[in-house]
């Protein structure tokens, strides 16, 4: 049921920006793009979400293309603690359903010293 | 403020038994969702509850059930356990649409 495509793995040097891509070519107009990450054996942690505008918070920035078919999560200064599996999720929102998240396989980001 | 609390953290059961897992959402969050995570299938949606009503259900057999109480706490039950039910079970809560979900640390169920 996953509706997103992400590279299985990426690596990044500590202190550099990590840019994680996601393809969601079948996204519909009212679907949001969410990013979560999961550090080994912990529950996923919410990072950021957006509809069509770029978003930024204290953790990351989200860049969504104008056609909304892809997005990029940017961790501006990656640290070793950012090593995790990152999930790009399209949130289905239909009627009374508040949100069923379709997780794909995610991207294993490894930050090296 | 307290996060999403799941109990117990670890559980070992025998095939054929049943199990009940508990989830206490963040105060004020009325929506609770459950997910199963296995190495082979990844994270899969089980069901979602809002105001004591099941709003959506994933593609799992009827052995998997859940409920939500008036204080928004939720339980999920798995009957007639199978080896393949061994997984990390995650609960998430949200105050509603357009908000992110907060996940608990999960319950690690092992069926032997």
Helical proportion of chain B, percent range: under 10%
For the largest interface in this structure, which chains are involved and how many residues does each contribute? Answer: A-B, 23 and 28 residues
Poorly predicted ranges of chain B = none
Count of distinct strands of chain B:
11
Q: Please give the count of helices of chain B.
A: 0
The chain-level structural class of chain B is: mainly beta
Q: Provide the residue-averaged pLDDT of chain A.
A: 89
Give the number of DSSP strands of chain A: 10
Described by the principal axes of the CA atoms, the overall outline of chain B is: globular
Report the β-strand fraction of chain B as a percent range. Answer: over 45%
Helical run tally of chain A = 0
What is the chain-wise order of helices and strands of chain B?
EEEEEEEEEEE
Shape of chain A: globular
Our estimate of the beta-strand percent of chain A is over 45%
What is the secondary structure topology, with strand pairs?
The complex is a heterodimer of chains A (113) and B (112).
Chain A: E1 9-13, E2 18-23, E3 32-38, E4 45-50, E5 55-56, E6 61-64, E7 70-75, E8 84-92, E9 100-101, E10 107-112
Chain B: E1 5-7, E2 10-13, E3 19-24, E4 31-38, E5 42-50, E6 53-57, E7 64-68, E8 74-78, E9 87-94, E10 102-103, E11 107-111
Parallel strand pairs in B: 2-11
Antiparallel strand pairs in B: 1-3, 3-8, 4-5, 4-9, 5-6, 7-8, 9-10, 9-11
């Amino acid at each position: 049921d996953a509706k997103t495509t992400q590279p299985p793995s990426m690596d990044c040097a500590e202190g550099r920006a990590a840019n994680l891509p996601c393809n969601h070519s079948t996204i519909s107009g009212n679907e949001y793009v969410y990013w979560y990450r999961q550090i080994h054996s912990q529950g996923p942690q919410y990072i950021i979400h957006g509809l069509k505008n770029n978003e930024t918070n204290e953790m990351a920035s989200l860049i969504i293309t104008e056609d909304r078919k892809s997005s990029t999560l940017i961790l501006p200064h990656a640290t070793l603690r950012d090593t995790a599996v990152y999930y790009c999720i399209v949130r289905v929102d239909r009627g009374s359903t508040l949100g069923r998240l379709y997780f794909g396989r995610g991207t294993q980001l490894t930050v090296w010293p | 403020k307290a996060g999403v609390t799941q109990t117990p953290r670890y559980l070992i059961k025998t095939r054929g038994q049943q199990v009940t897992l508990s989830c206490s959402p963040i105060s004020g969050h009325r929506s609770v969702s459950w997910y199963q995570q296995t190495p082979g299938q990844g994270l899969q949606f089980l069901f979602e509850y809002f105001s004591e009503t099941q709003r959506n259900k994933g593609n799992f057999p009827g052995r998997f059930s859940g409920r939500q109480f008036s204080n928004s706490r939720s339980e999920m039950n798995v009957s007639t356990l199978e080896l393949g039910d061994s997984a990390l079970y995650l609960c998430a809560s949200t105050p509603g649409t357009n908000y992110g979900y907060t996940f608990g640390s999960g319950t690690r169920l092992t069926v032997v």
